[in-house]
Amino acid sequence: TARLLHHPATAFGPITSVLKSADFTAVNFETAVTSRGIPQPKTYHFRTTPKAFTALRDAGIDLVTMANNHVLDYGRAGLADTLAAAGAARFPYVGIGASAAAAWAPYVTTINGVRIAIIGVSQVAELASSWVATRSRPGEANAINLPRTLAAVRAARKLAPVVIVFMHWGTEGQACPDPGQLSLAPKLAAAGASIIIGAHAHVLQASGWLGHTFVAYGMGNFLWWEHSYSTATGVLKLTLHPHAPLTAQFIPAVVSATGQPVADRGAAARRAMAHYASLRSCAELTRRPAR
């Protein structure tokens, strides 16, 4: 997908119109932004250039979560460059920082009079002990530090009535939430999360209600470089209402040969939406919020 950055304004392709249609749009940005650093002891290593932030902005994306298992692929030098590039681009991000306080800090915004706080956290265990941010060490927010994670949600709830938690979690290739997801989601909800959005499994996972918290366990690949278990993807459009629960619309798409997601149409879209709805059967979620 690196060649897409030759023309940042069109990097995301036709899905851009969908992304721009929302008042606020966010994605999981799964890479380091660096040309330096030492590859970490893992199989896959991702990095890109600061042009990526231009592409994100041109696609109508307002914020990225970077708490994931690739942001430190090139170690501390790579993370330092990533933080510097985001700062230079003035692009909002959550989930990483120069310290634990910064990594778990919420992004707070007001949209149409509604105050929203957003945090990003990874639950991926690989290298977590060396990647997690501490008081004196840059890194990512990771649920290996569960007290800090739940405290961050509670603190965000004091700042805003709507709290969105982006989670990087799940088992790769598995459409059903794993025990780690099923254990953590209720704790996030109890701490005050209004909405939980997940990534990492490379396949779509279900969305629905966990009591009064809306959970989308996994959104699959999106702008992506290979098949990685599935090319099925989509955009989740959530609409907040003043005196009623949010409503959700899933806009199905497929990762095309260029790496860009392209929205499904007609019968393909209907099949994709039916498949997405069927995923709820193993996710312990309901179609409607608890009364």
Note down, in words, how this protein is organized:
The protein is of the alpha/beta class and 291 residues long. Helix content is 26%, strand content 28%. The chain contains eight helices and 16 strands. The protein has helices at 16-20, 51-58, 75-89, 100-103, 128-131, 146-159, 179-191, 266-278; strands spanning 26-28, 32-33, 47-48, 63-65, 93-94, 96-97, 107-111, 114-122, 139-140, 162-168, 195-199, 204-210, 213-219, 232-241, 244-255, 261-263. A six-stranded mixed sheet has the order 7-8-10-11-13-12. Strands 1-4-5 form a three-stranded parallel sheet, with no helix packed on it. Helix 7 (179-191) links the parallel strand 10 (162-168) and strand 11. The protein is globular. The termini are far apart. The model has no long low-confidence stretch (mean pLDDT 98).
List the secondary-structure elements in sequence, H or E. HEEEHEHEEHEEHEHEHEEEEEEH
Give the helix proportion (percent range): 25-40%
Question: Please, what is the average pLDDT?
Answer: 98
Q: Which strand order spans the largest sheet, edge to edge or round the barrel?
A: 7-8-10-11-13-12
Strand content range: 25-35%
